[in-house]
Automatic annotation (TrEMBL):
This is Zinc finger SWIM-type containing 5. Residues 78-107, 263-285 have a biased composition (Low complexity). Coiled coil: none annotated. It comes from Anolis carolinensis. Residues 21-31 have a biased composition (Basic and acidic residues). InterPro entries: Znf_SWIM, ZSWIM4-8_C. PANTHER family: ZINC FINGER SWIM DOMAIN CONTAINING PROTEIN 4, 5, 6 (PTHR22619), ZINC FINGER SWIM DOMAIN-CONTAINING PROTEIN 5 (PTHR22619:SF2). One of its GO terms (cellular component) is Cul2-RING ubiquitin ligase complex.
Length: 1297
């Protein structure tokens, strides 16, 4: 018999395969996380010394265990392994020999190795099989047999330690390795209670190995539970990853050089450099050095971890925080419970209140992973108690109580009383709890997640709204969920459930619904990501039907709540069902009008109906070499293209959701295979669409209109299908830097670098790679003609998604292969007809292609300029702003129902027009110096852009480009800028625009740069471009300025030509608008006598009709300044006829003009003064103003202007004679009237002011010969009339008698 067979137990002694052991009824009543163990003495237990840690055993075979026990049913589709595992099974293979490798394996050297459940292998070749529970049990049985045969018999409990023990049997090396591997597999996959239930006697070395290997070996998982965003996996639903995350690999991806530990070393302690590469960055806005994981590493490296002890499945130790400037040194006790390579609970004296583990838990965990040989290892405490006799047990209890009497004495006495009572509850159940014995069989095996803290954190972030970076924090939590899903951690769905519960409990939902207002954009984006994550969760390829049913019930419950947000805001019923067919007939379109409300959870609810059992789908994702069979059965022809490559005919967003699910759950290769099948399907669909269009092209071009064939846009879709496919393909081509895990504190990341990876099962001569497929599918999706979605948020989401995809496209460095793909796809889009947004004829409601075309133009220009301009010029159109053509009556039913008017639902029209402008500006810049292309672009701008502000912006851009500071001007581009400026002038001539004056000034500047002929042109055609005021005050004045003449270096004939045009313009404007242009016209015509006289006559003719006194006074002052006092007097006289100054308007702005006019008349002579005084008396009724004029006229003699032919008498004028007598009488009358008016509503606080007013009146009265008599009579009348105002009259008597 071979040596190994001597150590086997017969298999028929075991319980039925893969069945759970029957539980002892005495063990009922245990609670989760605390297992109950029997207290009877068990046969074969050995007393004596403490338990040693497992020794390093050389060489041997190793088993490929699962990374977790979730989905222990086997491969990707839940098919369990059929063969039992034995020493000769394919699952047991010989590993590396040598003491170094063996020691690393024995002590935790596998560390970072995460093995995924195997998928169906290519070509049917058998791969390594995952161990089912029966296989692991058999492996543990073999280990137990080896140890039982090799170990000496155990003495009975309490036997003398000097009892002789027979020498152990010599086990062969293969058997020793098998025993060690049994401990590894058992520690990873079996609950210790199950191991105990299957075997009556478990050798102590086997127990030690199971306990030893039950602690987690991956630092990445510790990091995942102690930091935000530990991975750089981009979430398709969220539109991108935060900057600076390192790439988190799934369980099935090769770790290679990125492992934290060293498998080949006897002591698997990572170097500091390697350790520094493990953690990811902080959440946005947080320094990465403050992460608990990094702090934990620093504490570990500083030697802060001490007193580490592992008792069974419980690890404890102390961690000392060093003193700081503000805090003293603190030591914290840390306790960790674990089971099957997962930490199930943590406790730390620091009182950490956060979702993730604190730095002290991290430090202790990493100490156990990196320094396992320095950790004291003991079996569960119950095993030690089993080895004690009565005296030892009593001593143990008494010492324990003495050491902690202040804490445990009351509890100890209570337990003692219950044990001594035969009827107590504690005596009804056999056994006692053991916190170090691992989890129960019925306990869920998952990592510790503080659910209460998750709820509190989400609630806090939601309550903060959009402040304090709460949106970024919530996105980080979503990224953490995706990371957990990728690691196939059941806490991913659990954490998402907790987050969703808090989202649904957000009080703002009810408030928004009650007020009828929509939620904020940031909040909407968070809900979108939440819905996309649930689609990903329910499409988990290895979830059970029970899990899916549970999720479905919960999702329906949330979806039925009234406050549940709709999928597209208030327009949540416009998109087809997730399981809709690829083609949609008219009946489906009609039914879309009555589809029930769709919430953010509707797609995930629909996703629960999807499955992965389709044989064609399984073959696609299982092999890179799946091709069409030689003999196809009926219907199989639709499953492959002409090259024999498989197709996947499913609703495109749904198929992409499958890709996202595979990618997110750690199946990148499978996601890649399905992506290629989807792209092959899209290619075939594109070819067929081109064939259809060729037959309809003539009819569509004649009609000039078309229908929307794609009712559902892939860009801006809730499932982000194009982004998902693009990310899946580019991740396969990404070149990872050697230092890709080193993250700076600022969180900045280098742009990704890609390389071409050939597509499997593809003709090598085609040069096709996953990178070229990524570019191709992005162009397909972006170029799809699609209807503008309903609602502001849905439209905004289209542009955001479009910008995200273009941002990723711009990261690609275009080489010859990618340029060829780009050219080919652009040609197909231009020829795509109604199926392409770049086709010759598009629907009026089609989403514009401006942003997409701008990228294509910039990318194509260096390689194919003609194609670039053709594509960009066609994309300039914006049909929704055009007048509806008579042929545009082919709206689908759903379009007719929601588009009753021109464009009321295009909420983002301003954004569209700005993108259109940017595309035009890009073409103008590129066409600099090429007159033909510039003329073509100019025509496209004039035809398609309808906003004057945007055309003006284009004109300004063209002007800046054409006039660089360090180079000569480009005449062709300057002319284009001038043409655009002239168009803006025509568009805004009859409309109000606050930037109009800026536009006019800029146009004159532009015309000046072009040359004198441009200036002459705008002067001659001013009436089509400017208002009369603009033409005279801005245009003509600027043209005639000294700076312009110097700038153009004009000769005399050119100056005269410009001056003549300006004078002609001025006279025309003065005739059309004399009120606003007369003064400017006079100024411009000063140097030409005939023109000046003509302008003056225009003013005189308009003075009696439409001009105001202020305009006439201004022109009169100008005339006096220019030396025309008589003309100034005539204009001032005309102005006085339009003026009316009331008695109480003593601060009127025209007072200065009246005083100036009177002074001018007085200076001209007695005749002019006599002519103007009647006008003053008629127009001015304010006593103070009249008295001021009277006093000025009496101070000097008239006729001081010195006009030739006039004689000045030099005598002062008397107030008793004309013309001042009339002015004096009017002034006295004004004072009397004003006095009575003021006394009507006077208050005591104005008495003093009134007395001063009477004093001024007396001065005026005294200018008359009998003035003192008139004033006395006036005062007496006041006393009589207003005798009721006793106090006032008293003041009058005191002052005036």
């Amino acid at each position: 018999m071979p040596a190994l067979e001597a150590f086997r137990f017969p298999c028929w002694l075991l319980c039925p395969p893969c069945s759970s052991p029957r539980r002892d009824p005495r063990e009922e009543g245990g609670r989760k996380g605390l297992r109950w163990r029997r207290t009877e003495r068990r046969k074969g237990r050995r007393g004596g010394e403490g338990v040693r840690p497992p020794s390093n055993e050389p060489g041997g075979a190793h088993v490929t265990p699962s990374s977790s026990c979730e989905g222990a049913g086997g491969g990707l589709w839940g098919a369990s392994s059929s063969a039992a595992v034995s020493s000769s099974s394919p699952s047991v293979r010989l590993g590396r020999s040598g003491s170094g490798a063996a020691a690393a394996m024995a002590e935790g050297g596998e560390g970072e190795e995460l093995l995924r459940p195997p998928l169906p292998s290519a070509g049917g070749s058998p791969g390594p099989k995952r161990l089912c529970s029966r296989g692991v049990a058999l492996l543990v049985e073999e280990a137990a047999a080896v140890e039982a045969a090799a170990a000496p018999p155990r003495p009975a409990p309490g036997a003398p330690s000097s009892a002789a023990a027979p020498a152990p049997l010599a086990a062969p090396p293969a058997a020793r390795v098998l025993a060690r591997r049994g401990g590894q597999a058992g520690g990873r996959q079996l609950a210790f209670e199950r191991v105990e239930g299957r075997f009556q006697r478990i050798p102590e070395p086997v127990q030690r190995r199971i306990v030893y290997w039950s602690f987690p070996r991956s630092e990445r998982e510790i990091c995942m539970y102690s930091s935000f965003q530990a991975g750089r996996q981009d979430a398709p639903g969220s539109g991108g990853a935060a900057a600076g995350r390192w790439r988190q690999q799934g369980p099935g991806e090769e770790r290679g050089r990125r492992r934290c530990g060293h498998r080949g070393a006897a002591n698997p302690v990572p170097t500091p450099a390697a350790a520094a590469q493990v953690p990811g960055p902080a959440a946005p806005g947080l320094p990465s050095e403050g992460l608990p994981f990094r702090r934990g590493i620093r504490l570990l490296e500083a030697g802060a971890v001490e007193n580490v002890l592992q008792v069974g499945f419980h690890l404890s130790g102390t961690v000392t925080e060093p003193a700081t400037a503000t805090e003293p040194e603190m030591t914290y006790r840390v306790a960790i419970s674990f089971d099957r390579c997962k930490i199930t609970s943590v406790t730390c004296g620091c009182g950490n209140k956060d979702i993730f583990y604190c730095a002290h838990v991290v430090a202790l965990s990493l100490y156990r992973i990196r320094k396992p040989d320095q950790v004291k290892l003991r079996l569960p405490i119950s095993e030690t108690l089993f080895q004690m006799n009565r005296d030892q047990l009593q001593k143990f209890v008494q010492y324990l109580i003495t050491a902690h009497h202040t804490e445990v004495l009351p509890t100890a006495q209570k337990l003692a009383d219950e044990i001594l009572s035969s009827n107590s509850e504690i005596n009804q159940v056999h056994g006692a709890p053991d916190p170090t014995a691992g989890a129960s069989i019925d306990d869920e095996n998952c990592w510790h997640l503080d659910e209460e803290q998750v709820r509190e954190q989400v609630k806090l972030f939601l309550s903060q709204g959009g402040y304090y970076g709460s949106g970024k924090q919530l996105n980080s939590m979503f990224a953490k969920v995706r990371e957990m899903l990728r690691m196939r951690d059941s806490n991913g769905a659990r954490m998402l459930t907790l987050i969703t519960e808090q989202f649904m409990a957000d009080p703002r939902l009810a408030l928004w619904r009650q007020q009828g207002t929509g939620m904020t954009d940031k909040c909407r984006q968070l809900w979108d990501e939440l819905g996309a994550l649930w689609v990903c969760v329910v499409l988990n390829p290895h979830c059970t039907l029970e899990e899916k049913s549970c999720w479905l019930r919960q999702l329906r419950k949330w979806g039925d709540m009234e406050v549940c947000p709709l999928e597209d805001g208030n327009y949540g019923n416009e998109l087809p069902n997730i399981t809709s067919a690829l083609t949609q007939n008219s009946s489906h379109r009609q039914s879309s009008l009555v589809r029930p409300r769709r919430t953010v959870f509707t797609r995930s609810i629909e996703g629960c109906d999807l499955h992965w059992q389709d044989s064609h789908l399984q073959r696609i994702i299982s092999s890179d070499f799946y091709i069409s069979p030689s003999y196809q059965r009926e219907g199989e022809g639709l499953l492959f293209n002409s090259q024999g490559q498989p197709l996947w005919l499913e609703h495109v967003p749904t198929a992409c959701a499958r890709v996202d699910a595979l990618r997110s759950h750690g199946y990148p290769k499978e996601a890649l295979r399905l992506t290629v099948a989807i792209i092959n399907t899209l290619r075939l669909q594109q070819q067929r669409q081109l064939e259809i269009y060729k037959h309809q092209k003539k009819e569509l071009l004649q009609r000039g209109a078309t229908t929307i064939t794609n009712l559902e846009s892939w860009v801006g879709h809730p499932l982000n299908p194009i982004g998902c496919l693009f990310l899946t393909l580019t991740e396969a081509c990404r070149v990872e830097d050697e230092n890709c895990l080193e993250i700076s504190d600022a969180g900045d990341s280098k742009p990704p670098v890609y390389q071409h990876m050939p597509v499997a099962n593809c003709n090598p001569e085609s040069g096709e790679s996953y990178l070229s497929l990524a570019l191709e599918v992005a162009l397909m999706g972006m170029g799809q003609q699609r209807v503008m979605p309903e609602g502001l948020y849905a439209q905004d989401k289209v542009w955001r998604n479009e910008e995200q995809i273009i941002g990723r496209l711009q990261e690609l460095e275009l080489d010859a292969v990618l340029v060829q793909t780009l050219r080919k796809q652009c040609i197909l889009l231009l020829e795509g007809g109604p199926f392409s947004g770049l086709g010759e004829v598009i629907h009026r409601e089609s989403v514009p292609m401006h942003t997409f075309a701008k990228y294509l133009f910039s990318a194509l220009l260096p390689h194919d300029a003609d194609l670039a301009y053709k594509l960009a010029l066609r994309s300039m159109r914006l049909p929704v702003l055009e007048t509806t053509s008579s042929g545009d009556v082919t709206h689908p039913h759903h379009i007719v129902s929601v588009v009753p008017s021109r464009y009321p639902r295009w909420f983002t029209l301003g954004h569209l027009e700005s993108q259109q402008c940017e595309l035009a500006s890009t073409m103008l810049t590129a066409a600099k110096g090429d007159m033909l292309r510039l003329r073509t672009v100019l025509e496209a701008i004039q035809k398609n852009i309808h906003s004057s502000s945007l055309i003006f912006k284009l004109a300004q851009d063209a002007f800046k480009i054409a006039t660089p500071a360090d180079n000569s001007s480009d005449t062709t581009l300057l002319n284009v800028a001038l043409e655009l400026g002239l168009q803006v002038m025509r568009m805004t001539l009859s409309t109000l625009n606050w930037r109009r004056r800026e536009m006019v000034r800029w146009l004159v500047t532009c015309a000046t740069e072009v040359g004198v002929r441009a200036l002459v042109s705008i002067l001659q055609s001013w009436y089509t471009l400017f208002t009369p005021t603009e033409a005279t005050s801005i245009v003509a004045a600027t043209v005639m300025s000294h700076n312009t003449i110097l700038r153009l270096s004009l000769d005399y004939p050119q100056r005269e030509e410009l001056a003549s045009c300006a004078r002609t313009l001025a006279l025309q404007c003065a005739m059309k608008d004399p009120q606003n242009c007369a003064l400017s016209a006079l100024t411009l015509c000063e140097k030409d006598h005939i023109a000046f006289e003509t302008a003056y006559q225009i003013v005189i003719d308009a003075a009696s009709t439409g001009m105001t006194y202020s305009q006439l006074f201004t022109i009169a002052r100008y005339m006096e300044h220019r030396g025309y006092p008589l003309r100034a007097f005539k204009l001032a006289s005309l102005a006085m006829t339009h003026l009316n100054l009331a008695y109480n308007q003593d601060t009127h702005p025209a007072i200065n003009d009246v005083l100036w006019a009177c002074a001018l008349s007085h200076s001209l002579g007695k005749n002019e003064l006599a002519a103007i005084i009647p006008l003053v008396v008629k127009s001015v009724h304010c006593a103070t103003v009249l008295s001021d004029i009277l006093r000025r006229c009496t101070m000097t003699a008239p006729g001081l202007a010195g006009i030739p032919g006039r004689r000045n008498s030099g005598k002062l004028m008397s107030t008793d004679k004309a013309p001042l007598r009339q002015l004096l009488d009017a002034t006295i009358s004004a004072y009397i009237n004003t006095t009575h008016s003021r006394l009507t509503h006077i208050s005591p606080r104005h008495y003093g002011e009134f007395i001063e007013f009477l004093s001024k009146a007396r001065e005026t009265f005294l200018l008359a010969q009998d003035g003192h008599i008139q004033f006395a009579q006036f005062i007496d009348n006041l006393k009589q009339i207003y005798k009721g105002k006793k106090k006032l009259m008293l003041l009058v008597r005191e002052r005036f008698g």
